[in-house]
From TrEMBL:
Protein name, per record: Ras-related protein Rab-2A-like
UniProt-annotated stretches for the region Disordered: 138-166
Highest taxon of source: Eukaryota
Composition bias, Gly residues: 155-166
UniProt source species: Saccoglossus kowalevskii
InterPro entries: P-loop_NTPase, Rab_GTPases_membrane_traffic, Small_GTP-bd, Small_GTPase
Family in the record: Belongs to the small GTPase superfamily. Rab family.
């Protein structure tokens, strides 16, 4: 559970581990997902080189509005870096992705990666990009939103206390 714009948001997260042997199973996770974190290891060039294939898979099997964040992991291993931060930024820019570097070991930017992805999804909901009545988009309204009034409060609102959107 995280809070965005004063609203409780529940994230459901699957880790597909990026294993080539699980690729066919991984494709099923894209269906019904509102967001994805595409992660590579900054100390292993081959993981960066495979990004295009993983991104194509994600885009082919998901909603066209899915939010995708590119993550360069292991930022704590600067001395062993094999992929420059600028390369990750350029790849993200070229493909319309959000970018950041993290360290799972030190927890640097890990929570921020999930929160920033959720914020982007939330903004798309607010802009009407995601149809909140279609669960195929990977978004479910919380119990406080009745089917007769499924719209989310505007970000400037605050009319609803303790509410969540998803």
């Amino acid at each position: 559970m995280i809070t965005i714009d004063g609203k409780q948001i529940k994230l459901q997260i699957w880790d597909t581990a990026g294993q080539e042997s699980f690729r066919s199973i991984t494709r099923s996770y894209y269906r019904g997902a509102a967001g994805a974190l595409l992660v590579y290891d900054i100390t292993r060039r081959d993981t960066f080189n495979h990004l295009t294939t993983w991104l194509e898979d994600a885009r082919q099997h998901s909603n066209s509005n899915m939010v995708i964040m590119l993550i360069g992991n292991k930022s704590d291993l600067e001395a062993r870096r094999d992929v420059k931060k600028e390369e990750g930024e350029a790849f993200a820019r070229e493909h319309g992705l959000i970018f950041m570097e993290t360290s799972a070991k030190t927890a640097a930017n890990v929570e921020e990666a999930f929160i920033n992805t959720a914020k982007e999804i939330y903004e798309k909901i607010q802009e009407g990009v995601f149809d909140i009545n279609n669960e195929a988009n990977g978004i479910k309204l919380g119990p406080q939103h009745s089917p007769t009034n499924p719209t989310l409060p505007s970000s400037g609102g605050g009319q609803q206390s303790g509410g969540g959107c998803c």
